[in-house]
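Page 37, continued from 36.
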């Protein structure tokens, strides 16, 4: 059994296609297939079911692959130690960010981060939580920036800050006459929501104690963008709930449409997440420090009294 064989094994599991895996490993497909066959012969087990398209690991193969990921990661940590000592913080950082954070949080820190660490190439992908977690497990991302807790034993969570939920109300909405709102005061039929798949949608429905949203107007519009929801509220009617960072830069006339929740405010926990056998430790620690340095101080100092969970 060799390290190269284990890397080929992981590549096939990641891409579920022998030709693609060979291309990513910079070898021919016959070479990769031959090495995997040797590994399976040595172990005396079939790791992949080749009769299925795309190829899938067998039940025992799943356990072999999980252990192979740990073994390869531990070996790479040795290389990483030497590289950091020789070159400092350098290399590629692949970051996944959920859409309800990306446009509001990333601009706060990214310019200073890339200026401070010019040897780091940052690749940012905006995607929903389930996609980030899947890519972390397949080592297609190094770190995720999302809302926790995830309740996934393979994922390590590094909490950063707690962001409040706020209401965004049309000027004619009855709640706009109140300084603060409560979960009980919200009529779910007035709510504009994000599409299914967004964790923020799940949290909003949970906060309002509803399994789903039912509107009683002629327009039914679910969006993948908080900015679209804002515009719908402004031009139509009703209200939506937003994360606090998304209203920080609003012009004064639109800030008048924002209503905070009464205490204890509902919060969401924002974290960096990595696979438990993660690499690039120094790089990710530096990213964490840079984010914390640029987040408004009151978000960092909040006590998590009422954290809305993700279902």
């Amino acid at each position: 059994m060799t390290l190269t064989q284990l890397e080929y094994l992981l590549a096939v599991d990641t891409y579920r296609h022998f030709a693609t895996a060979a291309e990513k490993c910079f070898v021919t497909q016959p070479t990769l297939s031959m090495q995997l066959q040797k590994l399976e012969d040595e172990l005396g087990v079939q790791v992949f079911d080749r009769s299925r398209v795309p190829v899938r690991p067998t039940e025992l193969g799943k356990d072999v692959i999980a252990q192979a990921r740990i073994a390869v990661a531990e070996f790479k940590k040795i290389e990483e130690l030497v590289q950091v000592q020789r070159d400092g913080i350098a290399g590629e950082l692949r970051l996944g960010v959920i859409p309800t954070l990306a446009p509001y949080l990333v601009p706060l820190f990214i310019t200073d981060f890339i200026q401070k660490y010019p040897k780091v190439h940052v690749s940012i992908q905006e995607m929903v939580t389930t996609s980030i977690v899947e890519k972390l497990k397949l080592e297609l991302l190094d770190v995720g920036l999302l809302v926790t807790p995830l309740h996934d034993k393979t994922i390590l969570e590094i909490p950063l800050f707690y962001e409040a939920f706020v209401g965004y109300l049309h000027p004619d909405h009855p709640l706009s006459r109140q300084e603060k709102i409560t979960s009980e005061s919200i009529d779910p039929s007035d709510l504009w929501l994000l599409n299914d798949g967004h964790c923020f949608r799940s949290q909003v429905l949970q906060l309002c104690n509803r399994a789903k949203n039912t509107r009683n107007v002629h327009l039914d519009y679910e969006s993948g963008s908080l900015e679209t929801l804002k515009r719908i509220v402004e031009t139509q009617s009703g209200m939506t709930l937003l994360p606090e960072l998304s209203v920080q830069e609003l012009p004064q006339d639109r800030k008048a449409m924002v209503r905070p929740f009464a205490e204890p405010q509902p919060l969401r926990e924002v974290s960096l997440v990595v696979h438990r056998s993660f690499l690039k430790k120094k790089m990710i620690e530096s990213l964490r420090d840079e984010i914390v340095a640029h987040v408004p101080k009151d978000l960092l100092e909040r006590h998590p009294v009422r954290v809305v969970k993700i279902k």
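The first strand starts at residue 48 and ends at 49. Flag for discussion at group meeting. The two ends are 42 Å apart (CA to CA).
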